[in-house]
Amino acid sequence: MNIVYKVLTILMWTAISAGLMVLLVSAVRKERTMVCKAVQVEFIDKKPFRMLDESEIIATLWPDAKKAFPQGKKLVAINLYALERQLEKNPWIFSADMFFDQHHVLHINVQQRTPLARLFTPEGSSVYMDENFTVLPVKMNDAVSLPVFSNFYISPAGANAQDSSVMKRITGLAEFILADPFWMAQIEQVNINADQSFELVTQVGDQVIRLGNRSDWAAMLDKLKLVYRRISNENGWTKYSTIDLQFKDQVVCIKGNGLYQVPDSIAQMDSLKAVSITDSSINIKNNVQTITPVKSKL
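The structure assignment produced for this chain is given below.
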């Protein structure tokens, strides 16, 4: 009896194994005949603007759509990994993920890069830059409002330590401006000087705003807001030609007809007899005005 039971058990497992093999072979054959039903592009970054569209992504993957477009092609003939790498060669694409669902639809999930600033070279050409210092080409019909920087001459691919520091200051200042609607409206552009110091050109007021080589944006621009409040109260938007924010805890304002350059240090300022002002009074001598900002919320 035991021998019969063992024989039946062996036959049963043999039959099951054979059945599984048949199903596996059948599934493989069926998979080899499956074709792509459709292609669906989805942007997963949820950004309020689009620097890419579906047609550009399709064209990046399959330039000759009549011959290479995957709809109708067998799934086994489509190399998803190679297509992802090809798509990520587009400078505006940060990452791409491709997969087929149970309905044989090819999904292309794209995350685009986020530009922080628009940079103009001394020759007049322009590019965008993201937080990773990636240079992004300007596309036709762009409608992205970003901080503008002029006189950008650095090649990120061959940037040295000093260049990287400048690019870090660019992205840092751009992020600060983007986060504040007031500065987005007020700052027309940021000039990069030959010594890599920054100057602001503003929409309201004719002053040159000197930031120097500092990068503590909140401290400097909060002081500038305080100066703006005082200028507005005095109706003095045309009084000063330069507002210098380079010095710690001070603002140096030069009148439009001033004969003095901004001193290189606070010690030199004493020789010009520049007078610090309090929150309630303003004293000016020798056409140079020094403001020691108070800590007040604007």
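Interim note for the steering committee: The longest helix spans residues 2-33. Helices lie at 2-33, 54-61, 65-68, 80-87, 161-178, 181-186, 217-234, 266-271.
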